Amino acid sequence: MSKEEPLVKIRGLRFQRGARVIFDGVDMDIARGSVTAVMGPSGTGKTTLLKLIGGQLRPSAGSIEFNGQRVHELGHNQLFELRKQMGMLFQSGALLTDLSVFDNVAYPLREHTHLPASMIRKLVLLKLEAVGLRGARELMPAELSGGMARRVALARAIALDPMMVMYDEPFTGQDPISMAVLVKLIHDLNEASRPTSVIVSHDVAETASIAGQIYVISEGKVVAKGTPEAIAASSSEWVQQFMNGLPDGPARFHYPARALAEDLLGGRHA
Amino acid sequence: MLDQLARLGRSGLDYLASVGRAHLLLLRILQGLSDMLPRPRLLIQQLFSVGVLSVMIIVVSGLFVGMVLGLQGHYVLSKFGAAETLGVMVAASLVRELGPVVTALLFAGRAGSALTAEIGLMKATEQLSGLEMMAVDPIKRVLTPRFFAGFIAMPLLAALFSAIGVVGGHLVGVGLLGVDSGAYWSQMQATIDLHEDIFNGVIKSLVFGFTCTWIALYQGYDSLPTSAGVSRATTRTVVHSALAVLGLDFILTALMFGE
User: Fold this and answer.
1) How many domains, chain A?
2) Chain-centre distance of CA A262, in angstroms?
3) Chain B partners of A86 at a C-beta cutoff of 8 Å?
4) Cβ of A90 under 8 Å from any chain B Cβ?
5) What pLDDT digit, counting tens, does each position of B150-193 carry?
6) Are A94 and B130 a contacting pair at CB < 8 A?
7) Which residues on neighbouring strands pair with residue A21, listed in sequence order?
8) B239: distance to nearest CA of chain A, Å?
9) Where are the alpha helices (DSSP H) in chain A?
10) Torsion over CA of B237, B162, B250 and B12, rounded to 10 degrees?
11) Quick check: A229 and A223 in contact, CB under 8 A?
């Protein structure tokens, strides 16, 4: 596998849930060692895209390659083997609630390595130090704030030093300080060990500040791609509305409905 | 008319799909046995939460059921001058029927509902997805130990229920109503058969343990990842388990004790 080949290569991706088409002919390349952001409004299937890359969902058509392997064609055991090279930061953190912070970060190391306990302890403390929570190692997930839980989840996601880390809405619902901490952590992590990072988000400013490449998706298609500067300078009305957070534009403020007067004066039914 | 027919067909298909998913899940749970054996701690932890934490409700219920059997049994038997056979009646009722059945119903209410809620919430909070993305199979690591813990705990809890029930019957029959203590125990010893009564009771509770734990785990794993979804799944666990236990009890009783 050549170094220039993208780590993730998506071609003609189509995915649908029942009659609803989530993706229709999406092509995407995620370069090695880069930070790639996938942006778009809520409900456009950004999390679904990460699940497709991780093999938790299978596409209706098209292909998804990770490091040369076609993810959707792998068997159960091969898929689990492949996932050891991926880390994922879930929006909720997805920490195991019956384990302490330390045990949560140690979990993948205990599952997938035969390292002695003393070595695992050192690695876990280093990962927790990197996210600033070494002192919180005895706490249980219920005792953590939302921002702390996400930092622990980040430490766990990078415990095995994966080739790629996927971030699912890492900034959503965070206060400004927690958000700044997370932006710095993701940036520093990428500077230090250069894993390939995929950030799925609709927080425009934070994501654009750390991404090298941005894909904007809407209604199942890639509507724009390029560097943050190129996206900011896009002539597309839709992209401008999204990037600048305008309430009305090509994406309508109102959900499709009949005329207000007709609704008010019309029938008795809701 | 056609719409109603279509709805009926759709719900029938949904039901069949659900039965299929439950069997596939069971297959994957059983396949996880080889993965669980090198990690006995996972099973021991679950035996504690499914079995040991159910002991109190089993002991208290067993005692009261035994005491009621002592009262009711004495009322009937004394009419025929057979009050000395009270021990046989209490023990046979418990070992053959009430022990396995009531234990399974209590198990579904206490441990089964807890299993469904736990698995459902793990799904809703993405913990199961998180395990998958850490290359850990949640079925093998989370569901299999819980399944075998329920399967092992049920006959032990049923045995405890029956034993405590026999003591409860003794407390009332001998302590309150004046049945001879020697007759209570010796009649029981002479009549209760190891194979016919006790083994059959154990087989029943193994079947109930298998079924109740399977239902609880499936409902949790298949629940909608919302608070309403988990709540509905927990209710379904208790209702389906109770119906399955009572239905299976009739079939097993007919097979074991029918002429």
Assistant:
1) 1
2) 43
3) 133
4) yes
5) 999 999 999 999 999 999 999 999 999 989 999 999 999 999 98
6) yes
7) A16
8) 28
9) 46-53, 76-83, 101-112, 117-130, 146-157, 176-193, 204-210, 228-232, 237-244, 260-265
10) 10
11) no
- Residues of B at the A interface (Cβ-Cβ below 8 Å)? 125-127, 129-137
Q: Is A118 a domain residue?
A: no
**Does residue A112 form part of some domain?**
no
Domain range for residue A10? 1-85+197-270
Q: Closest-CA residue in chain B for A50?
A: B133
**Helix or strand (DSSP H, E) at A64:** strand A61-66
Query: Hey, what's the torsion of the CAs at B107, B110, B113, B117, to 10 degrees?
Result: -140
User: Which pair of structure tokens corresponds to residue A33?
Assistant: 């060692």
Across the interface, of B125, B133, B136, the residue whose CB is closest to A54 is B133
Residue A81 covered by a domain = yes
DSSP state of A212: S
Q: Do A94 and B135 touch (CB under 8 A)?
A: no
How do residues B11-27 score in pLDDT, each as one tens digit?
A: 999 999 999 999 999 99
CATH number of the domain at A77, please: 3.40.50.300
Cβ proximity of A7 and A163 under 8 Å: yes
Q: How does pLDDT run across A66-91, given as a tens digit for each residue?
A: 998 999 899 988 999 999 999 999 88
In tens, the pLDDT along A108-164 reads: 999 999 999 999 999 999 999 988 889 999 999 999 988 889 889 999 998 988 999
DSSP chain B: -HHHHHHHHHHHHHHHHHHHHHHHHHHHHHHTHHHHTT-HHHHHHHIIIIIGGGHHHHHHHHHHHHHHHHHHHHHHHGGGT-GGGHHHHHHHIIIIIIHHHHHHHHHIIIIIHHHHHHHHHHHHTTHHHHHHHTT--HIIIIIHHHHHHHHHHHHHHHHHHHHHHHHHHHIIIIIIT---HHHHHHHHHHH--IIIIIIHHHHHHHHHHHHHHHHHHHHHHTS-SSHHHHHHHHHHHHHHHHHHHHHHHHHHHHHHH--
Q: Which residues contact B136 (CB under 8 A, 6 or more apart)?
A: A80, A107, A108, A111
Q: Cβ A83–B133 below 8 Å, yes or no? A: yes
Is position A136 within any domain? no
Chain B residue with the nearest C-alpha to that of A160: B134
CB-CB contact of B140 with B30 (8 Å): no
Distance from CA of A264 to the nearest CA of B (A): 31
Comparing CB atoms, the residue among B126, B127, B135 nearest residue A83 is B135
∠ at Cα B229 (B226, B232), nearest 5°? 150
- Kindly list the distances between the CA atom of residue B204 and the CA atoms of A68, B64, B92, B123, in Å, as whole numbers in the listed order: 53, 22, 14, 32
Give dist(CA A58, CA A52) in Å, integer. Answer: 6
